[in-house]
Write a structure and sequence with these properties.
Elements lengths: L2 E5 L8 H14 L4 E5 L5 H5 L11 H5 L10 E2 L5 E4 L8 H4 L9 H6 L8 E5 L6 H9 L2 E7 L8 H14 L5 E8 L6 H13 L13 H5 L7 H4 L4 H16 L20 H12 L8
Parallel strand pairs: 1-5, 1-6, 2-4, 2-5, 6-7
Antiparallel strand pairs: 3-4
The protein binds adenosine-5'-triphosphate (ATP) and magnesium ion.
Amino acid sequence: MSNIIAVANQKGGVGKTTTTINLSACLAEKGMKVLTIDVDPQGNTTSGLGIDRSKVENSIYQLLIDECSIEQCMYKSIVENLFVLPSDVNLAGAEIELIGIENKEYILKDKVEPIKDLFDYIIIDCPPSLNILTVNAMTTANSILVPIQCEYYALEGLSQLIHTINLVKERLNEKLEIEGVVFTMFDARTNLSLQVVENVRSNLNQNIYNAIVPRNVRLAEAPSHGLPISMYDPKSAGADAYRDLADEILRQDGYEQAIEPADVPVDKPKKAKKQAKEKKTDSKKKKKFPHF
Ligand SMILES: Nc1ncnc2c1ncn2[C@@H]1O[C@H](COP(=O)(O)OP(=O)(O)OP(=O)(O)O)[C@@H](O)[C@H]1O
Ligand SMILES: [Mg+2]
């Protein structure tokens, strides 16, 4: 069974896209089969994973308005084992275009359902608002990862986000949980960053990851090269942090040990015996798609 994680925070510029790109890449490099879904019209996750948006024939926009199948809009990324459903600027009009469509909160979920078990992880990058695209991400996901920027107003808007997640859980997706909170853009030179971390840790009753993403210029540069940090500068502090985050998530999901990429050219980290057995049976059902 795949773990479907939506990376959400309606606050802009907190590191959702950076986290989606680099967490997806690190999980794939650790042997997981990953699908990244870019539902943000800005499309930065798509280009940040090495996909030339001008060459994308079918995007998630065509998928949502039923003009293509999910297989037709699934693309290989620059990272092995990592596939992408790319975004489209036309998604910006989705709120209006989807008016009147029945069950519009579940369009993405229904599209993803038949292929979800082909992947170990599906990571969805949300736009900076609580609109219909974010709701679609939240009905598709089983958990939400919330990046929090280490700045003065870090907690601003968080109660609204948690309220929305609870509403979606209550009315649309009872399985939805908060996967955890990850601090981003931590600046060790300032007291402010430390204070924010302490303040959030003592006031927020949620799982908070030990991995803290530092402010690191290499993380900001990597997307312009169409590369995740693990390929652009694998030795940077940013790459270390996202590898640590991937390790924590893998452990949380019951994988016995998270192994450094160099140690796992093909094999996945070992999971509990029973789950491994289940996976084996599942994999027999797996089909191959044209872009794979
Ligand atoms: N840890 C970091 N260190 C340095 N720069 C970072 C870091 N994380 C993100 N950035 C930069 O900060 C900006 C915002 O990050 P990002 O696009 O990931 O946020 P976002 O939450 O997805 O934004 P939006 O709400 O617009 O979708 C980008 O220019 C990104 O390169
Ligand atoms: Mg973004």
